[in-house]
Amino acid sequence: MSSKSLILCLLAPLVAGFNLSVPAPTGPFAVGTTVLEITDYSRLDPFAPTPQPRKLAVSLFYPTEKVSQNTTSCHKSNQCTRAIQLPPHTAAALESQTGVPTGILHNIITQACQDAPVTQPLRPLLLFNPGRGASRLIYSDSLIEIASYGFTLASVDHPYESNVVEYPDGSVVYGLQLDESLSTILKLIDIRAADLRSVLNAFSNSTVTDKIPGYGPLTKFKTDKVGVFGHSLGGATALQVVANDTRFAAGLNVDGSFWGAEQQVGTEAPFMVIAAEGHNRTSDESWAATWPNIRGFKREATVKGTEHNSFTDTGLFVEMLGELGGGVPANIPIPIGTIKGTRITALQRALVTSFFKRSLDGENDGLLDGAAAEEWPEVSFQQ
Ligand SMILES: *[C@@H]1O[C@H](CO)[C@@H](O)[C@H](O)[C@H]1NC(C)=O
Ligand SMILES: *[C@@H]1O[C@H](CO)[C@@H](O)[C@H](O)[C@H]1NC(C)=O
Ligand SMILES: *[C@@H]1O[C@H](CO)[C@@H](O)[C@H](O)[C@H]1NC(C)=O
Ligand SMILES: *[C@@H]1O[C@H](CO)[C@@H](O)[C@H](O)[C@H]1NC(C)=O
Ligand SMILES: *[C@@H]1O[C@H](CO)[C@@H](O)[C@H](O)[C@H]1NC(C)=O
């Protein structure tokens, strides 16, 4: 028996029937989640092997009623079934990418309640899209943290680009091997931007919204003025979308370079960049080229101790694995800097919510003007 399979045998008793629990979000709201399949019949999928409409998998995260253990009632409606973070194929893909033993990552449970009803939205809708090739599901905990402050988020995968997309019906689409050329990257940004518009359009279609638990006249999402953000290539897409479609009224780019004409087109809309340490307008020409063309409110926030992949849930996964013991590697070989997972999750939430409250709700908490320097000493701001 090889030593690797020996380790897996020893792990087996530990692996059976356990959960890795993500830490609770820090905001005042309980968070619900549901997964939607959204098909845009007006667009053919640019990658599918046979002609078919573009079909997207979207996770919603939203404030829901405070869920309590009510021992005097058998009423199911306010009980929380915590949602699993990574469905089986997504967990397996991440395990093979990182060397985490098989059967571990599927046991991560988020702090969001599966299919809990949406309540009246307090804050605007935000659309999110992941980094190149990444699953939207490795950002869910960061988005749940934001939702716990009253925001509703729609997190969107880009099938055939994301390494794996699992639909609610269990079907799976794997990512294609795409080249690194500029023309491919520009094509991906266009497809991503069209995907985000398809999702926003779908929220005006009752066939789609009827599938959202609790959705109705009082809980409707406002779709004429939303925010958009993304990590890496998703951040470049955010600029493309605000430049192109005025319903997207504010945008935020988490540590992504810009690539195409959006650099020159720019925008009047409020726009923000969150940067890993060492990523700035000197080290990234695309940021230098774009910045003068961001003509409305703008901020660049740099976070000490971070790397490009700090802005995912990887840091939280590392913290959870560290508590597991039993021979499970307590690390994931993806560079995430020195900042702790719980810390960057809270810090990113503070920046994202401050920006969107300010630019969509006209509420300024002063954070982006440096008002909370004692609470968040890792951040510095440039205009
Ligand atoms: C528990 O459920 C009962 C019956 O539905 C309700 O009257 C009561 O207010 C609930 N208590 C709490 C703490 O939610
Ligand atoms: C793990 O979490 C899932 C989803 O919430 C739940 O159904 C299951 O009972 C939990 N298992 C254990 C061993 O706690
Ligand atoms: C609404 O969604 C349904 C189901 O996806 C689709 O059949 C229908 O064409 C959509 N309606 C519009 C106006 O897009
Ligand atoms: C927005 O994008 C669509 C699709 O790529 C394109 O047809 C349209 O011309 C763009 N509009 C603007 C204002 O850039
Ligand atoms: C920009 O980043 C580079 C490293 O990538 C660093 O040497 C430089 O000091 C940074 N500039 C500023 C103004 O922070």
Automatic annotation (TrEMBL):
SUPFAM superfamilies: alpha/beta-Hydrolases. Keywords: Hydrolase, Lipid degradation, Lipid metabolism, Signal. It is an enzyme of class 3 (hydrolase). InterPro entries: AB_hydrolase_fold. The keyword Hydrolase applies. GO terms for biological process: lipid catabolic process. Pfam families: PAF-AH_p_II. Coiled coil: none annotated. Its EC number is 3.1.1.47. Residues 1-17 form the signal peptide. PANTHER family: PAF ACETYLHYDROLASE FAMILY PROTEIN, PLATELET-ACTIVATING FACTOR ACETYLHYDROLASE. This is 1-alkyl-2-acetylglycerophosphocholine esterase. It comes from Daldinia eschscholtzii.
